[in-house]
Write a structure and sequence with these properties.
globular; three-stranded antiparallel sheet; single chain; mainly alpha; 380 residues; 14 helices
């Protein structure tokens, strides 16, 4: 272990990535402090504790060779399934969803950890089968293996995280070298099928979505007919728009804020608070910071010393990309309302830790020594 630590190229340690994550975390802490109420407890302090603890986790993970971590990929997959089954059997229900478990007095959301564990699992799986990635058996096996955890997450119900995991899976298998001879037919069939599915879920007799999920889809398509469903998003848009160009943080000393009428503004709708406090310029700056993080992840994938590191970095980039797109799309009423946290800014220990583990993996890939990798790890 100590020999490996000596070989790392610490000059490639991305301080920019750490600084970007820290800046987003501190910004989130400020926004959470603005919205917390006496009934909520001290969310601000808990978020700061999670941020500091998360940075420590990222540091520790960055020092563990990702090859060593991925050697246990089968155990990680089984551990992930065990946690998801535990949620189904003995999970805690909050806001009509059973997504949390409590172990040793600590409550956490296993589906958040699933994102990182599945990135590692499929990166290693596709690395082992890289020369057979277009084999029918390998494709079907990977679909079955991704389908099992997605099923358990859908059962919670947690549609947003299920879609996120499927997006990550698609990004990794594409980066792994899936042939266009397979991708194009899937797109030719998939796009019309998606449009047909979108039509189907709008019908009263559909059975795929829960009633509340169907209402959210219908509310985006016909907002004037679903004012109750659109209440949260309408108020979120009002809050974002009221921030105008510069925001109210430094120009309005009153306590009058529109985001106080947005439920769960400390978590899934934290961007509505950012929009009102920091305005258009501040919101663009936040998006810029996320763009920097995603760029660093993609640059790490391009320069990764081997095939495995490249796939992990692509998976992490796709995870952050999808979360930012969906969270802000929902907060700005461009997408149906679905709960997904904004990385490092939203309140939630599970999301913070999973994001920090992903950051630690990127940092470790970057500092790997330039050595010739043989076997299935090689990029050649």
């Amino acid at each position: 272990m100590f020999n490996i630590l000596k070989q790392y190229q610490y000059k490639k340690y991305s301080i920019t990535l750490v600084a970007a994550v820290l800046l987003l975390g501190l910004t989130g802490a400020y926004l959470i402090r603005q919205v917390q109420t006496p009934e909520d407890g001290n969310l601000f302090l808990r978020h700061l504790v999670g941020l500091v603890g998360g940075l420590f986790v990222a540091l520790v993970v960055s020092l563990f060779d990702y090859h060593f971590i991925c050697a246990f990929y089968i155990l990680m997959y089984l551990f992930n399934l065990l946690l998801l089954i535990l949620v189904k059997v003995n999970g805690k229900t909050l806001n009509y969803a059973k997504r949390w478990v409590e172990i040793a007095g600590i409550q956490f959301q296993p589906s958040e950890l699933s994102k990182v564990l599945l990135i590692l699992f499929f990166s290693m799986l596709f690395t082992k089968f890289r020369h057979k990635i277009n084999n029918f058996f390998v494709i079907m096996l990977s679909l079955v293996l991704i389908g099992i955890p997605v099923y358990f997450i859908l059962e919670q119900p947690n549609l947003s995280t299920s879609l996120l995991i499927m997006f990550i899976f698609c990004a990794i298998i594409f980066a792994a070298g899936l042939s266009w001879k397979i991708i194009l037919p899937v797109l030719f069939i998939g796009i019309p099928a998606f449009l047909g599915l979108l039509w189907y879920v709008q019908q009263d007799y559909q059975i795929l979505l829960e009633p509340y999920q169907r209402n959210r889809v219908m509310s985006i398509l016909h907002p004037e007919e679903h004012p109750e469903t659109m209440f949260q998003q309408d108020n979120s848009v009002t809050a974002i728009g009221s921030g105008q160009l510069y925001g109210k943080a430094f120009t309005d000393n009153t306590d009058i804020r529109n985001y106080k009428y947005v439920p769960i503004s400390e978590s899934d709708f934290i961007f509505s608070v950012a929009g009102e406090e920091f305005g258009f310029i501040g919101s663009c700056f936040i998006l810029f910071i996320y763009a920097v993080i995603i760029y660093i992840c993609l640059a790490t994938a391009k320069r990764a010393p081997d095939y495995l590191g490249m796939l992990i970095a692509v998976g992490v980039a796709s995870m952050f990309m999808f979360q930012v797109f969906i969270n802000i799309g929902v907060a700005s009423s461009l997408l149906p309302n679905t709960g997904i946290p904004l990385p490092f800014m939203s309140y939630g220990l599970s999301s913070m830790i999973s994001g920090m583990i992903a950051v630690g993996l990127i940092l470790n890939i970057r500092i790997q020594p330039p050595q010739k990798i043989r076997g299935y790890y090689s990029r050649n």
